[in-house]
Amino acid sequence: MKKFDTEFFKVQEESFTTKRFLLLMLIAYLFALGVRYTWIHLMGGQAEFIWNNQVMINTPDGYYWAEGARDILAGHHQANDLSPVTAPISILTAWLVKMLPFSFETVILWMPAVFGSLLVVPVMLIGRAFKLDNVGFVSAMFASVAWSYYHRTMAGYYDTDMLTIVLPTFVLYGIIKALLTQEDRYLLLAPLFMVLYHWWYPEATSLNSAFSAIVLLYTLIFDRKNIYLYKLFLFMLISILPLGDIVDISLLIFVLLLLHFNPTKVKTSHLLVGLIIVVSIAYIALGGLDPIWLQLKGYLFRDSTSGGDSKLQLHFFAVSKTVQEAGRIPFDVFANRISGDSIIFILSLLGYILFALRYPSFWLALPMLGLGFIAMKAGLRFTVYAIPPMALGLGYLIFWFAQRLAGVLAGERWKGQRASWGIALALLSIVLYPNLHHDVFKYNRIFTPTFTKAEVENLAKLKKIAKRNDYVLSWWDYGYPIRYYSDVKTFIDGGKHSGEVNFPVSFALTHSQVESANMARLDMEYIEKSFKKNSQKSFFETEMRDYNVSTPEAFLELLKNPNLKLPKKSQDIYYYLPFRMMRIYSTVEIFSDIDLKTGALTHRSTFYAIRNFVRKNEMAVIGKNAYIDLKNGIAHLGNTQLKLKRFIISYYDKSGKKLNKKVRNYDNENGLTVIDMFDYHRLLILDKKSYNSTYIQLFVLQNYNPKLFEPVIMTPMAKIYRLKR
Predict the structure, then answer these.
(1) How far is CA 524 from CA 9, 49, 128, 578, 670, in A?
(2) Is 649 exposed, middle or buried (0-12, 13-18, 19+ CB in 10 A)?
(3) Residue 439 DSSP class
(4) Span 453-590 CATH architecture
(5) List of residues 6+ apart from 457 with CB closer than 8 A
(6) Tens of pLDDT along 274-307?
(7) What is the pLDDT of residues 432-456, one digit of tens each?
């Protein structure tokens, strides 16, 4: 292929001594770590976020991995509790807790910051591979604090994200290092990091496969006669075989020895081609493409409903429609998450192109860049993948401009030296500002720990009351923290929350107490039966069959019967009803307000939880031309007037423990209910369905049916009831 003249795109190379390079790497690492410490410092001054003398973590998913680490340290866990005792992050956490003189809470708080800041290492190594240590340093500083990366590796964000970008960036480094040196000792560098990446994060299959494909494509375009590159592709292909990580590593070593010693009489190039064909066939035959298709289907071709059992052809509400990070995002949000600003984003992309035009091997970063750009359709979570290559592009552009400006201002002798470094650092401070301002002064203040101390105290009390095999019914957002702090089982959680499993819980929270109790008991007992029988049949298929009904509507109608014959009670069920659920009540309701035959959303109930209102004599002023006339029982909403059935004001006594209520009834049976939650400063506007819902009756009003529910823990932040049936 004819060489392209790239002199115009050139940045003067700088290769530091090993000592200076490591010093700059340490500076970049401490910078990244220091920025992340700011959140701990801020939250450490707020007592409501301290538990066991440490700031609590800030992601619900973190409690899943923490549960696994806790159980590893304890040496046991209950059957079918879904505890991730074999997860790498849980194993690593347990090991660190054993080895280090820090508490469990301190370790999980700091791990994301300590490991996430390691991104500076592969970024600087990539720069060094191109003999551009200057570019690597500036790029590492920027990448480590870019919005999206900071969000997912900040202190307290205890999740696999702490290494899910670090490891593929090491893979990219391994590919580039092998390609630039073409030394056999680097052949296994990228493949071994690919295996490690997959071990840490099983969803890495797609990106690992893309890396393998881009190496083959690069070889065919730029250097198709180079046997070394085909070797690299072969080893990368072996590393993604779905045979298990240990088997893949064993095959890598075996094939390396086979190619090195070549005991066969077959020509090396022919042997290489044969191995590539065999491994490719094995990769496809073993289902290597299946995970890729499933991810594409889940994020790029998702629908608003998810299918249930194949026989019944039921439709449930898809969770992806309610998760922000899995939805479409506008360009400015997309650009900000990657670069902190739309202009910086465009400059970074330009820099990436300049870098790749000068060094074609940098095109090999396209899989990470492409996966990051998928975020425009697939959601926020993918933006983080584009940060390392975009940061390197920005660093390259900064020095490309700085060296030319230095040449104009200070003469030729200054190119790439002090003047260019001074200009580059000034430009770095400019592009860092919007990211640091967002990370430290905005995001840190709005991103708080998952639960407050008061909420955790309730769950800690429940741990002493409930047995380890008992179930807690609550929304999936709170599933992992409940399991961690109370050491119980849950119906749904952050990993088990498909539309089908969410339906019964949504139904139980948003329907009457009788329907709720029947649904909860049935759901729990059939979950346990499915474990014992290892059955994959859907909730509705088994229940409808056992109750001899042919339609889901008929089955749901049965649940209204207070005397419905239920399975024998095997374990207790506790309802965890937090105040924080009020803000997502309407989302919770969607999952059961759906026509199961067609997937169409049915008429949703009226539910408004208003914070900004003013109490004024016999009125509650909501906004301009919107107020509630409590004297006459009429809600004035613009030109619309709606009659009330009742007005309730609820308030706690001086001890903060006893809930009092005052009720005013109006002569309108079909009207709305307005509840003034005085101590919470919340005004609820409810129709009949939402007013009668189990959540409103049990949490807001404490009007529980004593035949069905028993109060266990009653605090303003959360109410916990035991189901008697």
Answers:
(1) 64, 33, 57, 21, 35
(2) middle
(3) I
(4) 3-Layer(aba) Sandwich (3.40)
(5) none
(6) 999 999 999 888 887 776 666 665 555 555 555 5
(7) 999 999 999 999 989 999 999 999 9
